[in-house]
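#onboarding

Welcome to the new folks! Below is a worked example of what a typical request in this channel looks like: someone posts a single protein sequence, and someone else replies with the predicted structure as tokens. Don't worry about understanding the tokens yet, we'll cover that in week two.

Example request:
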Amino acid sequence: MGEGLAGGVGGSGAAAEGAASGGPVGGVRAGAGPGSGGGSGSGSGFGSVDREWSLGELALAYAYPESAGREVWLRANMVSTLDGAGQHDGRSQPISGAADMRIFGTLRGLADVVVVGAETVRQEGYRPVRERADFAAARTAAGQAAVAAVAVVTASLDLDLSLPLFTSPLVPTLILTGAAAAPDRVAAAERAGARVVIAGDGVGVDPARAVRALAGLGHTRLLTEGGPRLLGQFVAADVLDELCLTVSPMLTAGDAQRIAGGPGVAVPRRFELVSLLEEAGFLFGRYRRS
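Example response:
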């Protein structure tokens, strides 16, 4: 395992609290802040703490702002290779790793709803969020359901409704679509047990309206897992509050999509680094809008 990098870099977030708290082994390695002088160093300017983070510490490090219980907060969780690929052969799994999946599960354990594009559901074989005992008490205390719901963004409703995502979720799967969606497909989705939510005046979904619609259902801690087109739409609509970005120590070349696609914004939007963790060469950055 490589040297641990920063916990709580560039801010006073909960990552710094977690890094200082000790605790059981298991998770992602944390490090002292820049200029700390700790550890043997590797020329990076960051000290190293030779231990791993527990699930509890990860939950602290990635906690939503306290205001998220009252006001909506949209975070994204994405992975990218060193050369900017957001996927390989159409899927993110080949560029992921064990620690990335651990954080993936932690972020789901904290969220009210996971928002994902229909194409990503099809390519990644999405299943319902599973209940995890590690997060049960915290979710109950926060007034959350046992697990996060999955909200699928789709204009066409071209979905395989026989998949477990629709047939056996612990909480009903949501489908976000436009007012002009095909009535027969809307009816079929509702018969399958999904809850259809209108979030656009035409066929497609308006990103800002989708966020408001989910908040109207009581879902204020939002997590999107893409794909790139959906994330690009959230960025363009200026509704993304936070990006959790895994940088995978891999190179793929080729023409794979970046983590966000679609038309560019007129002026690049600045986000600030809140925390940075490392394991096995993977970097886990957490960025918030400035």
